[in-house]
Structures are given as C-alpha cells and as structure tokens.
Amino acid sequence: MTRRLLLRIGLILLILPVFVLLGLYFLELGDVRDCVLDGGHWDYLDGVCRDTPQPFVPWVVRAPWLVNGSLALSMLGLGLTMAGLYSKKR
C-alpha cells in the first residue's frame, strides 16, 4: 500500500468509529432526557420510558460488539496511520 493510502484509511478508521459512537450516545441521551423531563425513568435494556425506577446498564453490557468493535477499528486505524507516517517517501 502506498503511504497516502495508509494515512487516509488509517485516519478514517481512527476517527469514524468515535463519531459513530458519539452520535449514537447523543441520540440515546436525547431520549433519556425527554423521559426524565416527563417524570419517567429510562429503561436502558428496552430503550423505553417507564414509570418505575430502572437500573443503569452501560453500553459495554448492552452492546459489547459495538463498543469493542469501535475500539478495535480505532486501534487498527492508529496502526495504519503510524505505518503510513513511518514508511519512506517514494
């Protein structure tokens, strides 16, 4: 692979998963805030507003493939970016 291609693919893989996770986080946060402002309790497992208190369940428990896959893609992107930066110019 050429140096430019390694850098481009590496930077895309380094940055894109973070933005996807942040986008999904803020979409869910908007739903949680709407539920709490209406006087309800957010059910993280079902993704609905309930009348009774619900436990907090983190993303790594609810969607481990999404969280760990995003981290793995970012690390792959970091490796490709570093390989692109360390390779010699032709």
TrEMBL record:
The keyword Membrane applies. Keywords: Membrane, Transmembrane, Transmembrane helix. The chain crosses the membrane at residues 5-27, 65-86. This is Transmembrane protein.
